[in-house]
Amino acid sequence: MATGRTHTQVSTVLDGLRETYDSFSINQSSVTVDHETFERVAERATTHVVDVDVKVQRESSVLVVESDGMVRAPHGTVTVEESGLESGAHRLVENQTGIDCHVVDVLSATILTITDKSRTGRDPVYRLSVLFEAIYEGGEPEGTARWQSGAATSTVAHPALD
């Protein structure tokens, strides 16, 4: 596996987002993980996926889901080769929550650099996490989804490490 390829993949996706959206913050974070986690992350990275969270707004509320004891925006992975990240984010929200939405913006992107704790000289794996903003178009929350006051914050984790 060529881990250097993941840096190119992340750069390509970011370039595409920059062409579509006016401006958004780009953050960078690094994490060192055990060998088993690194191998799992590196294998997933070969499928060229982007981790997405989608902040869906309806009036003064935001859509949240409860997952593993955390309350956060609808989230998951989207394959870059799909019909576009926005379409993938929309589909993810609809499948997780039953809510129809329209993606309108990118709020932020985070480049996650993952290194192997047991092999310090090994090339890192790069993953991209994008926070989209969307507006509510219809439907009622299903499963663990609910509307929450817009003042509440949701936790964004690193699904790349799951």
What attributes does this structure have?
162 residues, 43% strand, globular
Structural commentary:
With 162 residues, the protein is of the alpha+beta class. The protein contains three helices and eight strands; from the N terminus they run H-E-H-E-E-E-E-H-E-E-E. The chain has helices at residues 4-20, 35-45, 85-97; strands at 25-33, 49-58, 61-67, 70-72, 75-79, 100-116, 125-138, 145-149. The model is unreliable at 152-156 (pLDDT under 50).
Structural class: alpha+beta
SS strand fraction: 35-45%
- Please report the number of helical segments: 3
Q: List the uncertain runs.
A: 152-156
Q: What is the terminal separation in angstroms?
A: 20 Å
Helical content class: 25-40%
| E-strand count | 8
SSE string: HEHEEEEHEEE
User: What is the arithmetic mean of pLDDT?
Assistant: 87
Radius of gyration over all CA atoms, rounded: 16 Å
- Main sheet record: 8 strands, mixed
Quaternary state of this entry equals: single chain
**Which overall shape is indicated by the principal axes computed on the Cα atoms?**
globular
